[in-house]
Structures are given as C-alpha cells and as structure tokens.
Design brief:
The protein is mainly α and 222 residues long. It has a two-stranded antiparallel ribbon with strand order 1-2. The longest helix has 33 residues. The radius of gyration is 19 Å and the shape is elongated. The relative contact order is 0.18.
Length: 222
Amino acid sequence: MREKKLLWAGLGVLLLFVLWTVLIQSLDVQTVGPKDTKVGFASWNVWFHHLTGVNMTLYTVTDWLGLVPVFICGCFGVIGLCQWIRRKRLFRVDTDILLLGIYYLLVLSGYLFFEMVPINYRPVLIDGNLEASYPSSTTLLVLSVMPTLKLQAGRRCGNRAFRNLCTWFSVVFSAFMVTGRLVSGVHWATDIIGSVLLSAGLFLLYCAAVAYSGRKKNEALL
C-alpha cells in the first residue's frame, strides 16, 4: 500500500537524520568555531565556509523571507478554523488539515528541541552572541512547509494553472532559500544537510498519514 511505502520511507530518512546527527558529534570534531566551539566534519565544514565566505545581506533577505512559510501556515490555520466554526466540531474539520496542524506542531517541536539541545553553533557570531545552528531552522521551516503548499493545492484546487503556479513557486522558493542559507555563511554545511533530512522525513510521514486517512475514508464510503 502507498501509505506503508511512504511510512517506511519517512522512518528511513529520519533514521538517516539521527545517524547524521551522531556522526556530526563523532567524526573530525575540532575546536574551529567562534569562542572555541567544537564542530564535527570540521575540515570539510571549514573548507566550505571559507569557500562561500559570509554574506550578511543574503542572510537578512532569507531571514525575512522566512515569514513566507509562516504566512502559509497561517492560511491553512484559517482554513481549519473556518471549517471548525462552520461545522461546529473540531473533528469535522478535513482530516488532512487536522493532520497538517499536527505535522506543523512536530516541526515546531523539532526546532525547539534543537534550540534547547544545541548540536552545533553558527560559524559566525550574531550580534556578538553564539546561536544554535543545527539543524538550520529557516531551512527546516521552508522545506517542511512549502511542499505542503504544493500538496494541498493539488488536493483542493480545481484550477490547473493555480496548481502549477503553487508547484513552481514552492520549488523555486525552496531552492532559493536553501541555496541562500547555504552560501550566506551563517550555517555550517552539515547544518543544512541535517535540515533537509529532518524535513524530508517528517513530510513523508505526513504524506503517509494523509494517504492512510484517504484510504479509510474511501473504504467507509463503499
């Protein structure tokens, strides 16, 4: 069944994320960060950081553009709230929207966890302060939310041109944001990779849950 394939794929990617996190703390760990902070894969991370340099303008631009996925989350929240008010019961809200809320909460929980348990610190000081850098929170937010825009547009919109626009925007915006964070020099390269793995794993689990709920709904109608 499709949902089982998505489930195992998601769990597999999350396992890779866990393995990647362990490796970052174990391989080639050196004191090369600001204020003598330690970094895994140090030789490669430092080489890549020197290659890209630091571009604070690009950092600021991608920081502000991080509000775009927040706005998208808010739009889906409004859809769910309107359904709740109109249908008078929370569990009458479309299942994929309820699951989307749970999914966003999982993403937020992942972000908060790594803020409280720093794995890496940024390669540069922000306003003179050390900040947690793993996984890149902006990259995690973008890659977790933008695919849901494409998915929900495909499920809810009958206008093919609008669906294509959402797909195009999701892909181009995500590519720009990930590349921007990578070359801005405010994260180690391994931080970006960690975000890609975590967001992909969580999104696949969301897709599995949506596929499962859709199959159950179809079976109930038969």
